[in-house]
Amino acid sequence: MPTAKQAKAKKKTATKTYNNYIGGEWVKSSSGEWFDNVNPADTSDIVGRFPKSNSDDVNAAVEAAKNAATKWRRTPAPKRAELLFTLGEILRENKEEFTREMTREMGKVLKEAGGDVQEAIDCTYYTAGEGRRLHGFTTPAEMPNKFAMCVRQPVGICGLITPFNFPMAIPSWKLIPALVCGNTVVIKSGEDVPLSALNLVKACEKAGIPKGVVNLINGHGSDIGPTLVGHPDVRLISFTGSTNTGRIIAEQCARDNKIVSLEMGGKNAIIVMDDAHIDNAVEGSLWGAFGTSGQRCTASSRLVVHKKIYKKFVERLVEKVKTLRVGNGLDARTEVGPVIHEDAMNNILRYIEIGQKEDKAKLACGGNRLTKGDYSKGWFIEPTVFSDVAPNHRIAQEEIFGPVTSVIPFSTLDEAIEIVNGVKYGLSSAIYTQDVNQSFYAMQELYTGICYVNSATIGAEVHLPFGGTKGTGNGHREAGTQVLDIFTEWKSLYVDYSGKLQKAQIDEVEI
């Protein structure tokens, strides 16, 4: 019987190696180099070794997508959808395994990782249904004996660039609509979470999606992102990530006249009115601020609370936050996992320092890195609350992307709405109130792409459009049927059966 030490040593020597998926084959990177996928809760745990791809790998993946494009485009959409329904079944059958592997590589707790996989399942089932509903429309022509209609057509080869925080859900938001619309794709997954995207692609392979239709390249964004974005055969780039990176991608795509869909940052807020059910609002704030350790673009990083209940709300919130169990997400008792890596941790801690120096703002709880015992090998930060924060403070304006939230007082609903709208982002917002009039007024005036009543700012569902205003994106929406407008081009069709030349807008029509 091996000792625990021997078992651990064996585990280290048995690190599994994974490959890229190009043209229906699992292949090593032409660079011959690798990078380690590390568990953020225990950095001694290497989840796997992945190829560190270079430009040659990108070019090969695009070429494979190009070779598969015509046949896949000509495959009837209902037939494409049948394969996607099969994919949904495969994801569902493997949900538990994919969930555990996601938690191990990303850190989010098991329940949340399970929700991530479930969202990919939901997206696949829902979007596959569009294979029989890729509707255009007919309309009366202005000339006699003439028929007018429009249809959707795929855009071509799509480059999909995805982040770490939703390792399977976000790739599915992009991949599944692209496929049902008849496009071929090259996926560049988040380098911190390559296994979950690989599991999604393996499921595509098992479902029978033809070779070359789906291609996966692993590696660092700085190494391969520019090649993918700048490749002349890639017609569309769909990117989820930071606003700064999105801006660079948008500039490149503008120069090359590519289609670009951007889903970027957020600085979301919950309004808590004086008539709100306080305990419900506190629970929503906990979930919104500290779910996924605050690493959501929809995280409730601002809590805008009416002065009449401000003190009571802060007291109850802090009391609850102090009871949150931080730890390894694989432990079912854990409520808040680690942050993704050391750089992210240091950036969050830097913002906590900034918050402590903000005029009049108070560190109500948390604020420290956890390093003792089981925390010593991971990137753990205490759930942190700042109170008495002013709307113009940096911690109330800039995206922190970690387990930190700021409580801001207000006096009137209009003031609260002004605070919520007073940032450069516009992704998600929420209001807690028992007054239906206030609810509808807030829904009207909050300038965000998503708005909740009596719930947190997180928890979007796949059958409604997802996205935001201002610095959050560039006007496109993922999920829902609206995502089809990203991955298709409109074609207008005119059929003249009059037997003569008719000139629209010029010829007079006899009545």
Give keywords.
511 residues, alpha/beta, Aldehyde Dehydrogenase, Chain A, domain 1, Aldehyde Dehydrogenase, Chain A, domain 2, seven-stranded mixed β-sheet, five-stranded parallel β-sheet, 16 helices, 38% helix, 22% strand, globular
Please give a structural write-up.
- With 511 residues, this protein is α/β, with parallel strands linked by helices.
- The protein folds into 2 domains: 11-32 and 46-264 and 473-491, Aldehyde Dehydrogenase, Chain A, domain 1 (3-Layer(aba) Sandwich), CATH 3.40.605; 269-453, Aldehyde Dehydrogenase, Chain A, domain 2 (3-Layer(aba) Sandwich), CATH 3.40.309.10.
- Helix content is 38%, strand content 22%.
- A 7-stranded mixed beta sheet has the order 14-17-18-13-12-20-21, with helices on both faces. The protein has a 5-stranded parallel beta sheet with strand order 9-8-7-10-11, sandwiched between helices. A 3-stranded antiparallel beta sheet has the order 5-6-23.
- The longest helix has 20 residues, at 55-74.
- The radius of gyration is 25 Å and the shape is globular.
